[in-house]
Write a structure and sequence with these properties.
alpha/beta; Double Stranded RNA Binding Domain; 3 helices; 6 strands; 40% strand
């Protein structure tokens, strides 16, 4: 009984963690001391990728990143920060197809002339979803070298209220990989 309780306690955090649908890949220049950076500025959206976003979505993203950097002791400046950040976003539609086959067969009696019957029902469903990929590049202003990059992919809700609620936690998930921890 005790083992079942222990298993249940361990299974709950795993189940909660598996509900997270954001996938993040990050890379950094290992030769850089990130503690030397005190200010940052946004370069803007690369290749006009923000055309897919509403003004409110852009503001939510920018505010979420600003909050995360402030929690790491960094100050936002309008231009020429120690670090310069560019964002690139791609939104695509993906379609998933699933099928289910329900096959039933019944044989007749055990003599030669009896016949059985069979029935089959195939069911297919199509689901479309919007998938967003955010690429965040961080550059050293003086050397112009890229010092950190994160690529995050997540299913995007079409409901603006839900996006407003989930975006900050998604940005938090991205920033967990940033080399400077919260203060």
């Amino acid at each position: 009984m005790r083992a079942i309780k222990l298993f249940a306690l361990l299974a709950i955090p795993v189940a909660i963690a598996s509900c997270s649908s954001i996938k993040v890949v990050a890379d950094q220049d290992k030769n850089i001391d990130f503690s030397k950076y005190k200010t940052y500025s946004f370069l803007g959206w690369q290749n006009h990728s923000d055309e897919n976003l509403s003004k409110e979505d852009k503001l939510i993203l920018r505010d979420a990143f600003t909050k995360e950097f402030e929690q790491r002791g960094m100050q936002k400046v309008n231009s020429a920060g120690d670090m310069e950040i560019s964002l690139y976003i791609v939104i695509s539609e993906e379609t998933a197809v699933s099928g289910y086959n329900d096959y039933v067969a019944k044989h007749g009696s055990y003599n030669y002339y009896s016949r059985g019957y069979a029935s089959s029902n195939n069911t297919y469903s199509h689901q479309s979803k919007m998938v967003g990929t955010l690429i965040m590049n961080v550059y050293d202003r003086n050397s112009k070298d890229q010092i950190w990059q994160a690529i995050a992919t997540k299913t995007v809700s079409e409901n603006p209220k839900k996006r407003k609620k989930t975006t900050p936690s998604s940005i938090r998930s991205i920033m967990r990989y940033f080399p400077v921890n919260n203060k």
